[in-house]
Specification:
Helix content: 40-55%
Radius of gyration: 24 Å
Shape: rod-shaped
Distance between the termini: 74 Å
Largest sheet: 5 strands, mixed
Strand content: 35-45%
Number of domains: 1
Order of helices and strands: HEEEEE
Number of helices: 1
């Protein structure tokens, strides 16, 4: 009877070790996917600003509640857009220069207006 109990304990211990070995990389995969998603979001936001600059509209309003996850912040200055989220920063380059500097969290609203050859930005 004692051998049966010890064999079950050994099987449980081996199972826990296998789970520990597999769980580490599994959690890393989710972090990599989140980082890829944030980098893609930064590129998409920059693409939206570039599309506005080359379009016919004079003003674009971006409600950040529609774009950003909780705890995220976006900064726009010059030719650079920086998305900060979960302790990491993701940079995307713009094709046009944004006059001024703006920073908005999830509850912010960015307003872009065309000014001659460039685009100005304001936060509301």
């Amino acid at each position: 009877m004692m051998e049966f109990t010890l064999s079950r304990v050994a099987v449980c211990a081996c199972g826990l070790m296998i789970m520990a070995v597999v769980a580490g990389p599994a959690f890393g995969i989710f972090e990599d996917r989140a980082d890829d998603g944030y980098a893609s979001l930064a590129e998409d936001l920059a693409s939206d600003i570039d599309a506005f600059a080359s379009g016919e509209a004079d003003r674009m309003v971006m409600d950040m509640t529609l774009y950003l996850p909780e705890g995220a912040e976006v900064r726009v200055s010059g030719y650079v857009l920086i998305l900060s989220c979960d302790g990491s920063e993701h940079t995307a380059l713009l094709h046009i220069e944004v006059e001024g500097e703006a920073s908005a969290g999830r509850s912010g609203v960015l307003v872009f207006e065309k000014t001659g050859d460039g685009v100005s930005v304001a936060v509301f």
